Amino acid sequence: MTSARVGKQQDGPAADAAGAPGAHQGEGYQRGLGARQIQMIAIGGAIGTGLFLGAGKAIAKAGPSLILAYAIAGLVIFFIMRALGELLMYRPVSGSFSEYAREFVGPFAGYVTGWTYWLFWVVTGITEVTAAAEYMTYWFDIPQWVSALVFTLILYGVNLISVKVFGELEFWFSMVKVTAIIGMILICAGILTLGFSDAGDTASVSHLWSDGGFFPKGVGGTLMTLQIVMFAFLAVELVGVTAGESKDPEKTLPKAINTVPWRIAVFYVGALIMILSVVPWTQFQPGVSPFVAAFEKMGLAAGAGIVNFVVLTAALSSCNSGMYSTGRMLRDLALNGQGPRFFTRLTRSGTPLVGTTFSAALMMVGVWINYQWPGEAFDYVVSFATISGMWAWIMILVCQIRYRAKADRGELPGSSFRAPGAPWTSVFSLAFIGMVIVMMGIDKDARVSLYCAPVWALIMFVSYQVLKSRNPDAFDRTPVQGAAAPRD
């Protein structure tokens, strides 16, 4: 079925009216993402290499108490997503994070949020496509750069065809990840109840407390894993970027957001409970996927290959999401005069041609840099992705608090999807994120992320002042989501 186009292209005052609160016509995008795709994008956004690979390091640091860390962090993520949902139902637009920051905090906040989220996905795309190329060497003896080039070109082409094709590819990427985790949970449940496989004789839920207790590294060890845990949830907010291209955002987005609790309960808490019941936490090592370790303990020889395929899928899914979101964020900035005008260009199928092409080109440069200098300099750039991703969460929470205050005073229309417990849940979430940032400063392995932040902030401040001096009207006007854009 052909996607319905959103509104009509507008110029002048009419276009400005399209950017008024509550309006989202005229963005030029197609409503090509259905409920099935939105649901799987929301599910897949919470499942990535942070779970499949990063959990091994976190288990070694905290032991079984990592389960509690994921549960608490998952609650905070739900608060963040409900805050985002309230904003989305107030005004569902494709450049949601920067649009809300621009409206409720100020032009500079919108500028920083848009460019920071764009950088987050560019850096993430670089790392993920490089990781995918490394995973390919498990089966094929081919140069890493060849795989990276092929993957980048394929995902770039997919994102230029139409948003519907992107959604379909992301649907199947997410399906692979979900199936793998559910399969692991069912296998572990079978081992615990029926006792089959090599792990059947030793598997027991008592592993959760018998090897040094539930907090074998102390509460401090658990707190030090919070940054790893929160990083694993990065990209869960991607569903907000799809708002401008959802067929029925008023129904599909709230439904997708409300599934966050059970997604976290099943895919993180449930999976860890099962794995740590079958395999004692002392047998996990940093850098080794807990899923691979569990399969080996069960005596399933094909386990490593299966997990390698799943992790490859997770990496490609993340890169695919990066291709999608970067083009939208650049176009949103350009529509509001905070980026080059040529980024507003759309293809006839409603995809941001120039923005996606520019971002993909940078991802290609990143692959080349990683090939030439795979040392610490590249690792420093990669580490910045984590702190930049959390900036989007901070802006979501701040904007929701300010929006709720204005809505309660009758200055703005109320949202049909109010966040429960807000604004106190948003305040609590901000405090929690603040604590995670403090923990990052204490942890020498994560501290490098904070070193990069002031450099980027300086770049943003200087570039903002330059652009504002050249075009002050672009930073003083009401946000315009829906200005006319050329088509190819």
Automatic annotation (TrEMBL):
Gene3D superfamilies assigned to the protein according to its UniProt record, in alphabetical order: Amino acid/polyamine transporter I
Predominant localisation class: membrane
Location in the cell: Cell membrane
InterPro entries cross-referenced by the UniProt entry: AA-permease/SLC12A_dom, Amino_acid_permease_CS
Family annotation (Pfam families): AA_permease
Extent of the signal sequence: none
Domain Amino acid permease/ SLC12A positions: 38-472
Mode of membrane association: Multi-pass membrane protein
Compositional bias ranges of the Low complexity kind: 11-23
Superkingdom in the source lineage: Bacteria
Protein keywords: Amino-acid transport, Cell membrane, Membrane, Transmembrane, Transmembrane helix, Transport
Membrane-spanning ranges: 40-60, 66-84, 104-124, 144-166, 178-199, 219-239, 260-279, 299-319, 351-371, 377-401, 422-442, 448-467
Region (Disordered): 1-25
Xref: PROSITE patterns: AMINO_ACID_PERMEASE_1 (PS00218)
Family listed: Belongs to the amino acid-polyamine-organocation (APC) superfamily. Amino acid transporter (AAT) (TC 2.A.3.1) family.
Protein's UniProt name: Amino acid permease
